[in-house]
Design brief:
It comes from Phaeodactylibacter xiamenensis. The protein is of the alpha/beta class and 220 residues long. It has 10 helices and 5 strands, in the order E-H-E-H-E-H-E-H-H-H-H-E-H-H-H. The chain has a single domain, classed as Rossmann fold (3-Layer(aba) Sandwich). Helix content is 45%, strand content 10%. It is globular, with a radius of gyration of 18 Å. The relative contact order is 0.18.
């Protein structure tokens, strides 16, 4: 039975959190960390539920709430996710995207499909609809107040400890730091005041969501 659904919004600490979930629940009871292509492959092969082992307790990955709504309701699972300052999240996602284009060995298929975008600027990237308000898009379909927990990357350790206590974990393992831009942090683009305003405007829904969660911290 699925007890927990962990929606991993890109560049919000989900890889580190996934490793912690594996430690707490056991690798065999935590799903693979679903990538978008994994989800679409599961749909083509008969649907997400058919891709999940029967002993599963935790579902985790780049899955939008609307894609797991039926599982949430069927299992009465607790839904959790992590957010991040929207501008910082976009900048990090852009830097990760550019890093993959410059190092195609990590994902040759994606690199080949996007080779023409190697000179794309931060604002060009951010203007694309697919890259705007991504946090809101992942969470759409369930009001933030109805999530069991929403943590913030800016207070990762403290929120992680709080979540572990809320879930009744007997032991809260150390939180690993994985996939956090260390390899290409020096290449992060600088964001001046004008660019900051543009990025905030392009992600107005995410800004409102992030502010709402910060205001209602006591609810989580």
């Amino acid at each position: 039975m699925i007890e927990l659904i962990s929606i991993h919004i890109p560049k919000t600490g989900g890889t580190s959190f996934y490793r912690a979930l594996q430690t707490v629940y056991g690798v065999e009871r935590v799903s693979v960390s679903f990538r978008r292509r994994d989800y679409f492959e599961a749909v083509e092969q008969g649907g997400l539920p058919r891709a999940l082992p029967s002993q599963l307790n935790v579902l985790h990955g780049h899955l939008r709430y609307e894609e797991v709504r039926d599982l949430h309701l069927q299992h009465n699972a607790k839904v959790i996710t992590w957010l991040r300052d929207p501008v910082d999240r976009v900048v990090s996602n852009y830097s990760f995207f550019k890093h993959r284009l410059l190092h195609p060995e990590h994902n040759p298929k994606v690199a080949a499909a996007n080779a023409h975008r190697v000179s794309e600027t931060l604002l060009e990237y951010a203007t694309l609809e697919e890259n705007r308000n991504r946090m809101s898009k992942f969470m759409q379909g369930l009001h933030p107040k109805d999530y069991f927990f929403i943590g913030l990357l800016e207070s990762f350790e403290a929120d992680y400890e709080r979540l572990g206590k809320r879930l009744g974990w007997a032991h809260i393992p150390p939180l690993p730091r994985l996939n956090d831009n260390r390899r290409f942090r020096k290449a992060l683009p600088e964001v001046n005041e004008e660019a900051l305003r543009q990025l905030q405007a392009l992600n107005a829904e995410d800004m409102a969501l992030y502010d709402w969660v910060k205001t209602h911290r006591s609810a989580f």
